[in-house]
């Protein structure tokens, strides 16, 4: 039987890379997004709003997926609203698919906030886990929309009999425009501004992040793990961390990123210097840069998600991820983090998103 994928969030940083991975392995691939116009070539686009149950049922009327990959979410002002909205999106989707009885596997992408806490209590004293974080770490006694999303998957699986997998990446590195959490593109935009203005490429985060060990997740490697878990019986009904497989210190990597752009790096100097404040007045400057260099995106806010980069780089502890669980079950992919950034920067330049 052929594999028919429904990728939810197909235009996003994970979803677009997943679509490429599935298409490369012969999957029939549907891409659902509110605006799927930028979907990968070969993807069958579906325009739908996960908050509109009736419209969702209409959009999916002719689609009978065997595998569903949920890679999207909507940021809200409070965690209570995050739970209501994002839990509801998962529930609406799985309810719409339930009568078809075609779904064999549902994969849900969440992240390390499973261990570190939600946005409004993120990495605060009293809720910090031991690192490297491991999948068996219990849920925190905090409201968390990741937990709500998981519970919707578990309930639908019990009702409909499909298998599931949960995937918890660290910071995702990959190309996306208009993405809500996008460190790689944010740093590329920041470095471009530094080069244009002569500013130093200043590390914005904490001493713990500057000196501590860290890791990240290339969008291409999570795509590989998603396909692996969907087709590996031993991975059925399991949660998996997913990172590149190497570790680094920002005190080592920061200068290498600066060198790629030809700018002067400045490390942690005793003060956290949020990137959100650094870029707050640069919208007009970016528009000017885009016009002068013929760039494809003149809106800095569609490239840079400084708030999220500050959240990750401002943590008061080093954060790294244990990958033993999926390794033991046969997922052995590896990705160099330095190459993750350099490949991304080269692609952004090629696509005229940076000079």
Automatic annotation (TrEMBL):
Residues 66-305 form the PRISE-like Rossmann-fold domain. Gene3D superfamilies: NAD(P)-binding Rossmann-like Domain (3.40.50.720). CDD domains: 5beta-POR_like_SDR_a. InterPro entries: NAD(P)-bd_dom_sf (IPR036291), PRISE-like_Rossmann-fold (IPR055222). This is SDR family oxidoreductase. It comes from Hymenobacter cellulosilyticus. The lineage of its organism: Bacteria, Pseudomonadati, Bacteroidota, Cytophagia, Cytophagales.
